[in-house]
Amino acid sequence: MARIRSPLMLAAAVAAVAPLLATPRGALAQEDDDRRVVAVMRYYNNTGDDKYEHLGRAFSSMMISDLSVIERIRLVERERIEELTKELDFQQSGYVDPESAQTVGMMIGAEWVVTGAFLTVDPEMRLDTRVANVESTEIVTTAEVTGEQESLFDLQQRLSDQVVAGLELALTEEEQAALRAQQEANRIDDLDTMVRFSQALCLVDYGDYVGAAEELQEVQTRAPGSAIVRATLGLMKDKAEDEVKNAVTAEANRRIGGLLGRNRNPQPQRKPRPAECG
Known about the structure:
Blueprint: H1 7-16, H2 18-21, E1 36-40, E2 44-45, H3 55-67, E3 73-75, H4 78-88, H5 98-107, E4 112-121, E5 124-133, E6 138-148, H6 152-166, H7 173-186, H8 191-205, H9 209-222, H10 227-259
Parallel strand pairs: 1-3, 1-4, 2-4
Antiparallel strand pairs: 4-5, 5-6
Helix pairs in contact: 3-7, 3-8, 8-9, 9-10
């Protein structure tokens, strides 16, 4: 059984992120909402291979999207979790230990926290996961799925089934059908394509929306039928357009300022690719 950090450590952590928790986006718990609030943390790269450094982002994103069709579950946004864990400096090379994960869950009002790791031994991949009850700090389910890397879709299906079981949900036939339909819609079979998708998500997390949109265009070419790729690409195109508009506005202000003899700032340039994303 994992245990939450000491009250003193938790109080210090809460103080560090108080501005984030004060926003409406941080207030996830609602008295009139009886859905299970679930936070899916980034899966940990246990391969020792830098190629897969960000793959855990893709696994958590896929899990969140798949489970989103189950109306009895309310999922915390992946970007929100990344923002908070980064602010708390809990992540070292993407790893969030069980105590820290449950602390994050407590802060954002989650009742359940899903954590996991993955390991590749060519040509196979193993995905491990566990589901923890935040209030009791009890690990209620641990699960493991192993299979061929080229059967990635099958591994993800089996893993989500085990996560649902860990959340103590008995799905109706309608819910089961909706879950299968969502998984099929999001489908990415190729591991290399998932790696590219994870790189794009890393760029998203570090604010390089233009770079993320460019990366996602390549992913879409490889997996044209994947709904999660299309949805993420659409979102990133919007963000990239906003970024370009802001840059144009900044340049216009710079030029106007120059004409007026003030604000002679250098021309804005596109941000360099974040070093954290390789």
